[in-house]
Amino acid sequence: MQHRSVVEELRERCRRCRVVRLFDPWGSPLCTCPPKYSLHPYTGCSHLCLYCYATTYMGFRRSVPKKGFLEKLRRDLKWLDHRFVINMSTSSDPYPPEEAIHRLTRETLKLLLPAGYRVLITTKGSLVTRDTDLLLEGNAAVTITITTLDREVAAKMEPGAPSPRERLDAVEKLASEGVPVGVRIDPIVPGVNDDPGELRLLVREVFSAGARFIVTSTYKARPDNLSRMASAFPELKEAWRNLYRVRGRWMHGYWYLEEPLRIRLLEPVVSEASRLGMEYAVCREGFRNPRFLRARSCDGSHLVPLRVKPGGSRWPG
Question: Could you tell me the fold of the domain covering 2-303?
Answer without folding.
Answer: pyruvate-formate lyase- activating enzyme (3.80.30)
